[in-house]
Amino acid sequence: MNWNRFAVLAVPVTLVGVAACGGERIPPKALADARADYYQARDGVAARLDPTDVHEADIALQKAEHAWENAPDEPSTIDMAIIADRKALLARSVANTMKSQQDVQAASAQLEALKTQQLASAQGRLSSTQQALGATQMQLEQQQAAAALQAQQLKDLEAKLKDARDTIAKIASVKDDDRGMVITLQGEVLFKTAKFDLKAGGMAKLDQIADALKGKDAPIVVYGFTDSVGAHDMNMGLSQNRAQTVRDYLVSKGIPQDLVTAQGKGPDSPIADNTSIEGRAMNRRVEIVVSPKKI
Questions:
Q1: What is the rounded distance in angstroms from the CA atom of residue 70 to the CA atom of residue 72?
Q2: Which of 26, 29, 8 is nearest to 18 (CA)?
Q3: pLDDT at residue number 158
Q4: Which of 140, 170, 200 represents a domain boundary (last residue)?
Q5: Residues in the chain where the model's pLDDT stays below 50
Q6: Which of 170, 201, 217 is the last residue of a domain?
Q7: Is the pTM of this model over 0.85?
Q8: Which of 37, 44, 29 is nearest to 86 (CA)?
Q9: Distance, CA of 40 to CA of 235 (rounded, Å)
Q10: What are phi and psi of 54, to 5 degrees?
Q11: Do 158 and 189 lie in a common domain?
């Protein structure tokens, strides 16, 4: 967080605090960050595209401000400030994802209009060719030029559709293999040790992933993995429960339920050595596999 930027945004609030309290206390950095990030969400695209989350961020900030005024030394005061900041950041992130999706939809509409126009043009040229055989070569050259233009437009559209992948790559590991696009999230990000209830931070990441995958109509398989510590049957059950939890959360965020399945792999598919702490941490993961779209 750029402190100079906060200084500009938060001057009115800080001066009021000094006037009321004689300048004895300075708001903690967590509260300053929450204010600055909320102002950016309120004054940016989030206010138009995601007003509900902006409103929730506003309420959370008001609670944090109230806690600071009445109980500045309570640990819960800092927690409220952090929650307010996370809500503001979430509103901005969700709005940016929605904006990317709108851009993709607009590009798709433009491409469809272009294809319709090119098809009508090609049909007209074909009719002219049948009437004037002498112009066949010229018309073939025009068709080739139109095909090249369409190929370029398709290439441009693919670049725009790549925005969804780029959005996900900012918050998770993304790679491609023979199964399709593989999104990997470490278990510690999503769950507490030996649990399968999602953490708040894990939900925030899955919110962004779900928003990026909406409308793609691609089959998705959620795989859960564990390290080798503990009984094999216990690890299989834990990995299945974790995969099912992520699957159900994605469905709750708008992914069609018939496109998403869950499968627990337990410790049977390690990607690192289970004899080291680092290796075990890498093996505790969830993979969201998005299969290639059939054309």
A1: 6
A2: 26
A3: 45
A4: 170
A5: 1-22, 153-154, 156-158, 160-161
A6: 170
A7: no
A8: 37
A9: 43
A10: -65, -40
A11: no
